[in-house]
Structure formats: C-alpha cells, structure tokens
TrEMBL record, chain A:
It comes from the Eukaryota. The keyword Ribonucleoprotein does not apply. Residues 332-369 are annotated as: Disordered. It comes from Amphiprion ocellaris (Clown anemonefish). This is Septin. GO terms for cellular component: cytoskeleton.
UniProtKB/TrEMBL annotation, chain B:
Belongs to the TRAFAC class TrmE-Era-EngA-EngB-Septin-like GTPase superfamily. Septin GTPase family. It comes from Amphiprion ocellaris. Residues 408-428 are annotated as: Disordered. This is Septin. Residues 40-306 form the Septin-type G domain.
C-alpha cells in the first residue's frame, strides 16, 4: 500500500489518502511463524504523529506575483500575509527583508509546524545587483544555527529545524524566457537550497504559450547548469528516477492561486472569476497548481526535507569545518556569502615541515576527532 | 563567531494555530516517513548477557523464528569475549538488519571481577564508532550501519533465590549505557509460587542497589496501558525452544518432559509472548530512540568533555566547538613541530658523531698502515744487509779457497812429499 502511493501521484484523485494500519489490529493472530518485525512501521508512525513535523518554505519573487496567495492556497489557510497592503504608506521596501512566520496546522491527527519565509523587496529595486545575497545569508545562517546546536556538548534532544527546506521561485509570466535576474538567482541558490521554480499568474498564458515558455525555461536551466528540485543526481533508484523524470518534464509548474471560493457545477471550489470564465485553481485542465501541491506536500515533502538535511546542510557543514584547514585543503570555498576565516596562527609553513606529512596528519586528526 | 546570526526559529509557544479550510494533504507525512524508512531498511542490535548455558542462543532463535548458526560454547574460556553476528531478516516489506551479540564465557571464570569490563568496552566501542562518524567532516550518517546496542537482555539464572553478586555488579555498570531488560532464563525450572517470590526479590534487589532497568514507555496513550502492565511483570520468565510438539491439532514450540510439555507461546506457562510483544512488536522503535537520545548522548557528552571541549567558558561566553577544535589543532601542530625539530636535531647530532667516529677509525687505519709499511721496509733493509754480509762472507770464502788451492798447487810442484808431510803435520 505504501509503494502504490508513489505511483498514484499522477492519478490526482482525492482518494490518494493513506490507509494507516488500525492500532491494535492483530493481523497475524495464530500465525506461528510471525515474528512481528513489521510492527516497527506502526511504532514509527506513532512516534511521528506524537512528535509532529516541521516544514520551512521560502517564497521568492517580485512583488505582485501572487506569492502570498499561492502559499495560502497551498495550505488552505491564511499563513502568509500579503506584503503590499492597500495602505499607500506601506510601500515596497527599499531593501530586501526576510520575514518568517510560523503556524501550527493539524490535519487528521498529524501536526505540522509550518514556517513561511517571505522575501519582500526581492527584485523590486531599480538596481537589483546582489539582491540574492541577503537570501543566501539567511539560508546559510539557518544552517549555521543548526550546526552550532549540533556540535554543542549539551544539545537538545530534537534540534529545532529552521533550515529552509524548499524555496519557491516565482517567474513572471512573460512567455519569452528567463530574465538575467532569474538565472543569476537560481544559479546561485540551487547550490544551497532546493529550488522549485513556478510560473506565476499563469492564467495570462494560453496553453501553447505556456508549453513554449516552459520548454524555453527548461532549456535555459539546462544551459546554465541549474539543478532545480528534483535534482537528477539525488534520485535513489530506478523507480525514483522514473517518477522524478516525469516531474522534471513538467517543471516549472504554471500556477494560479486564489483564496476565493466560487460555486461551479454545484461545488464550491477555489478559483478566480473573470468576465470570460472562472479559473478553477485545482483543476488540472486549467492550471498546474494541483501538481505543485502534490509534489510539495503529498508525495515529496519528506524527500525535500531529506535532501536539505543530508545534502545541502552537509555541504555547508563540510565547507564550514574545512574553513580552518584552509592552508592544507586542496580547494577553497568560492561562495561569496561565506568568507574564509583567516587562521592567524599558522601564517607561513615552517620550511622544516614537509607539506605532505603534516597535511596527512591533519586529515587524520580531524577524522580522529 | 564573527558573523551575527539571524536565527529565525520561532519557538513552539509563539507559533499560532491556524485552522485549515480544506484538505491540504500533509497527513500523508507519516506515510512518507515510513516509506523512506522501509526503503532504507532498519537496524536492531541486541546484546545477550548471561552465563554460558542459560539458553541465550535458543531464545534468540525462538524470538526471531530462525536458526541462527553457532555452536554452543565451551565452559573453559579464559575471559569474557563478545561475539557479534549480523543477519538480514525480512517480513512482508520490512527489511531488518539484526545484530545479536553474545557474551562468550561470562560467569565461567574463577575470578569474575573483570567480567563486566569487556562488555562495557564493547558497548563504548560502538558509541565511539558512531561518534567518530558524526564528527567526521565528510560523513554519511544516513547510510551508516548503526551498531550501537539497542537492547541488553540480561539472563538471570533460575536459582529461585536472589540475584548473584556478579549480576548486580554487571547490571550496575551497564544501566547507564544500555537499555537493560532482565529476564529469568530457563524458567521452566521454577514453580509458579517460587517464581512470584523470585520476581519480587529480584525487583527489590535491583531497586535497593539503584539499578536502572528499561521501563516500557507510558507517555503515549495508545500503548501506555499495555506497557505499564508489562512493566509490572518484569523480569520476564522465559523459556525458549525451537522444537515443535503436536498439541491438539497444532504444532507448537515447546519443551517436552516426561511429566508434561512446556509451551513457549502459552502465557500461562511462561512470559515469552510478553517479551516478544514488548521487545519487538511494541517498543523496538522506542528502544532505538532511547539508545540514541539518552545513552549515546551521555557517552558523547562525557567523551567530548574528556577531550577538553566545553560549551561555555568561565565568563559564560559560548565557545564554538570550531574554535576549540582550532585551538586544539594548533596546540597539537605546535607540539608536532617541536617534536619534529627535536628529532631533526638529534638526527643531525648523531650523524655528526658517527662521522667523527668514522674519521677517527680512518685515521687509525692509515696510521696502522704506515706503521706496517715502515716495519716492512725495515725488515727488508735488514734482510738485504744480512744478504750482503752473507754474500761478502761467501766471496771472502771463495777468495780464501782459491788462494788455498793456488798455494796447494805451488807446494805440490816445489817439493812433492815434504809439502805433503808438512801438510800432514800441519793437518794434525
């Protein structure tokens, strides 16, 4: 029943609900060869339900692209406050701000702490040079906080996870190609965080325009060596690759967000009402919101967190711990957001020392430690 | 730390609860998590501590319904060694890497003072291996084969009286390092009434000696009841058997005696079912978690403090482990350099000395050679002189001889016999 869930991704039916094993159900009573090892699944599930989950999602894009609306639509609640209020005093910020809001949400006994990180001001200036820097810094800062707690001697049982699991990048629906800002941002950030690019306000594109735009974007991403989620190199096995290949053929998802409900065919659905028709947000014939939601929440959320933890965070950690080995390690960090820490104590290698011997011992010590 | 951190973590009590207007779908998260674990496989490591012959291997076989290979050990081991075997088990879609560690020779020695040491060392070694991996720069924690002991089954001999002092000492040394589940082995040797008394005695002895055994967790409502009931049945009185006997129309695991049959899975006969229920079906995950969050953390804390790391210095400013690493590393490097210098000096010194020695020897040899040469020359000279003098003698003799012959000839010619007479007279 668990394997089936992966392939149900593309059936899109509401019945992709998991069927948890009933508690206390003895399915193997009287079976003398039954040991009960598989009961660990239920034990794990119980533990997970008790602990709850954390998910940190960042939205990046120019103002007016519908970021807050999309997040609210994804989580069907007001988890994100629209950044530009009707009040004329509250203008677009002069610098990029990073705003983090957490909410506790619960569904069928599963509790989740959802943190939405908004980046008002991104791409809104006239000169947008280095506008990715505060965002990079924020992401790296969260890794740093986690690392500091992890290397503490007295550390918490569960290290609070504020690391950005997923960054949704909003591409304006120009229909042509990626702008230099888009390329720069995604190129840099795809190395430190999972990026999910989406075409915002996709109801302004016809289906042909949409397909052409998506194809162009995919090519540009490929040409610039930008690896967005799901990254090809992290596919675990053939099955994974198959599922993820299908997703990679569809990204970026063309989405429409809405928090307004309308009556369509006797049902109340989320949509945008225009004079020429009502766009149903969750209708895959109209837009790809449902695919995005399923990817982010229903099927790949755990995987997104795993990649953040075991790959992006580990990469940061390696770089950070190597910083003091700068005289001996083979490569230096080239990320502008991370300044190599100058180690004043060993300015020059004493001529009597043989570099190979010392470096090897150094390596051994850091491994030993 | 040179950079200020904008830690954006909102503590739990400050994040707002928000109602959902429809089905979002993150209720599938437990399934996603379980799915990932299924693909990964699970690890579970059991340590069996107990004297030889208490049925440890048989119990493992019975618990996991397999015949783990192995010969029963002899009683003549010189010390306690730990033998570990890893097996891959699979049930429906769950793959389990089970490691069973046995104490070989426990309780067999005459002097058992150090018996617990090898067990403690083994447990610590597993923690150490994990710590090493965790501290590595390039690490692969998610694919690391966790060998830390999750559960320690302590086999108590069915004497019916009380715990042996070896048991108390060993359990006391282990209780802060591993989850201990004490069990009464071969409990078919004890009658029901004796068993009740025995259990009470054991429990009270454990309490009075401050031994912390593993308590099945009672904080989750779904299992709180069963766990607290089971807690009161500790230590479990078990019987193990892999042989099957026909009871009624079923084949059951049992031990057959002339006076009756002890059925392993009959709860009236022994607590085997309770043990299996608690150890595997209900609390396996909790055992793993306690090992990681409590026992391992304790080990890690002690080890790091021992190595000289601190979280805060006397002025209450947080040290970064990074800085301490660096300080230690520099210290070490400094020492290393010093040592290398010293060694170099010593080497140079030695070379000089040896060189001087060799030079001395060479000089001596030369002198000896010169002496010998001189000696040789002297000898040669002497010999030549002697030869010369001998030659001279020879020449003189020859001359004399010639002169004498000449005179003889002259005498013969002058007066034949008179010279002869004179010669004769002369000769006389």
């Amino acid at each position: 029943q668990i394997k089936a869930q992966r392939l149900l991704y593309f059936n899109m039916s509401e019945s992709t609900k998991p069927h948890p094993q009933g508690k206390g159900e003895k399915t193997h009573v009287g079976d003398s060869s039954y040991v009960g090892i598989d009961a660990i699944l239920e034990q794990m599930r119980r533990k997970a339900m008790k602990q709850g989950f954390e998910f940190n999602i960042m939205v990046v894009g120019q103002s007016g692209l519908g970021k807050s609306t999309l997040v609210n639509t994804l989580f069907k609640s007001k988890v994100s406050r629209k950044s530009v209020q009707p009040n004329p005093e509250e203008r677009i910020p002069k610098t990029i701000e990073i705003k983090s809001i957490s909410h506790d949400i619960e569904e069928k006994g599963v509790r989740m702490k959802l943190t939405v990180i908004d980046t008002p001001g991104f791409g809104d200036q006239i000169n947008n040079e280095n506008c990715w820097q505060p965002i990079m810094k924020f992401i790296n800062d969260q890794y740093e906080v986690y690392l500091q707690e992890e290397i503490n001697i007295n550390r918490k049982k569960r290290i609070p996870d504020s690391r950005v699991h997923c960054c949704i990048y909003f591409i304006p629906p120009t229909g042509h190609c990626l702008r230099p800002l888009d390329v720069e941002f995604m190129r840099r950030l795809s190395k430190v965080v999972n990026i999910v690019p989406v075409i915002a306000k996709a109801d302004t594109l016809t289906l042909e325009e949409r397909d052409y735009f998506k194809q162009t974007i995919r090519e540009e991403l490929r040409a610039n060596g930008i690896d967005v989620y799901p990254q090809k190199e992290f596919d675990e096995d053939a099955e994974d690759r198959m599922i993820n290949d299908k997703i990679r053929e569809m990204i970026p998802f063309a989405v429409v967000g809405s928090d307004q409900e309308y009556q369509v065919n006797g049902k109340r659905i989320l949509g945008r009402k225009t004079k020429w028709g009502t766009i149903e947000v969750e209708n895959i014939a109209h837009c790809e919101f449902a695919y995005l939601r399923d990817l982010l929440i229903r099927t790949h959320m755990q995987n997104i967190k795993d990649i953040t933890g075991s790959i992006h965070y580990e990469t940061y950690r390696v770089r950070r711990l190597n910083e003091s080995n700068i005289h001996f390690s083979a490569h230096l960090s080239d990320d502008p957001a991370v300044e190599p820490k100058a180690n004043g104590q060993l300015e020059e290698q004493p001529s009597a020392l043989q570099p190979n011997g010392v470096a090897a011992q150094h390596e051994a010590l850091s491994h030993e430690m | 730390m040179t950079r200020p951190i904008s830690a954006n973590y909102v503590p739990d009590d400050l994040s707002r609860a928000v109602p959902l207007a429809g089905h979002v779908g993150f209720d599938s998260m437990p399934d996603q998590l379980v799915n990932k674990s299924v693909n990964h496989g699970f690890c579970f490591n059991i340590l069996c501590v107990g004297e030889t012959g208490l049925g440890k291997s048989t119990l493992m076989d019975t618990l996991f319904n397999t015949k783990f290979e192995g010969e029963p050990t002899q009683h003549n081991q010189p010390g306690v060694t730990l033998k570990s075997n890893t097996y891959e088990l699979q049930e429906s879609n769950v793959r389990l890497k089970l490691t069973v560690v046995n104490t070989v020779g426990f309780g067999d020695q005459i002097n058992k003072e150090d018996s617990y040491k090898s067990i403690v060392e083994f447990i610590d070694a597993q923690f150490e291996a994990y710590l090493q991996e965790e501290l590595k720069i390039k690490r692969t924690l998610h694919s690391y084969h966790d060998t830390r002991i999750h559960a320690c089954l302590y086999f108590i001999a069915p004497t019916g009286h009380s715990l042996k002092s070896l048991d108390l000492v060993t359990m006391k040394k282990l209780d802060s390092k591993v989850n201990i589940i004490p069990i009464i082995a071969k409990s078919d040797a004890i009658s029901k009434s004796e068993l009740a008394k025995f259990k009470i005695k054991i429990t009270s002895e454990l309490v009075s000696n401050g031994v912390q055994i593993y308590q099945f967790p009672t904080d989750d409502e779904s299992v709180a009841e069963i766990n607290s009931t089971m807690n009161s049945h500790l230590p479990f009185a078990v019987v193990g058997s892999t042989e099957e006997v026909k009871i009624g129309n079923k084949m059951v695991k049992a031990r057959q005696y002339p006076w009756g049959t002890v059925q392993v899975e009959n709860e009236n006969h022994c607590d085997f079912v309770k043990l299996r229920e608690m150890l595997i079906r209900v609390n396996m995950e909790d055992l793993r978690e306690q090992t990681h969050t409590r026992h391992y953390e304790l080990y890690r804390r002690c080890k790091l403090e021992e190595m000289g790391f601190k979280d805060t210095d006397p002025d209450s400013k947080p040290f970064s482990l990074q800085e301490t690493y660096e300080a230690k590393r520099n210290e070490f490097m400094g020492e290393l350099q010093k040592k290398e210098e010293e060694m170099r000096q010593m080497f140079v010194q030695r070379v000089k000395e040896k060189e001087a020695e060799l030079k001395e020897a060479e000089k001596e040899l030369h002198e000896k050679f010169d002496r010998l040469k001189k000696l040789h020359q002297d000898e040669k000279k002497k010999l030549e002189e002697k030869k010369k003098s001998l030659d001279d003698e020879l020449n003189t003799f020859k001359q004399k001889k010639t002169a004498a012959e000449l005179l003889q000839n002259q005498a013969q010619q002058a007066g034949g016999s008179t010279t002869l007479k004179r010669d004769k007279e002369r000769k006389k």
